[in-house]
Amino acid sequence: MRGDEPAGRLQFVPVKTEEQQAALMLMGGRQQLMTRRTQLSNAIRGYAAEFGLITAKGLDKLEPLLARIAQDEACQRWRARCLRCTAGSMRGCRST
What confidence category does residue 16 fall into, taking pLDDT thresholds of 50, 70 and 90? Predict the structure, then answer.
């Protein structure tokens, strides 16, 4: 809004083409997936830390942690199942 325009005045924007709208939808969906992936990786690291399985931040550090979770005998079965379920969700969010 410019300084000489009254407050509350509507400003109209050009209508987006189908291609523009599709690109915006694609970017929005990608951003949501990246956010969810980050949330899941943080949750996995936090849950694993509760059982003494510690790893550094970073998606490249997550796969070795998931392998340790899958093989760790210290985790009781029901706890390990919860971690494996969350890990399975994370694997479904991998970027290609």
Answer: very high
Model confidence pLDDT, tens digit, residues 54-68: 999 998 999 999 888
Collapsing DSSP to helix, strand or coil, 34 comes out as: helix
DSSP helix/strand/coil, 59: helix
User: Where do the DSSP E strands lie in 6-96?
Assistant: none
12-to-3, 15, 23, 67, 96 alpha-carbon distances in Å: 17, 9, 21, 54, 38
Q: Where are the domains of the chain?
A: 54-91
- Alpha-carbon distance 93 to 87, whole Å? 10
Separation of first and last alpha carbons in the chain: 41
CA distance 50 to 9: 55
Entry pTM: 0.62
Distance CA 21, CA 43 (A): 33
- Rounded Cα distance, 21 and 13, in Å: 14
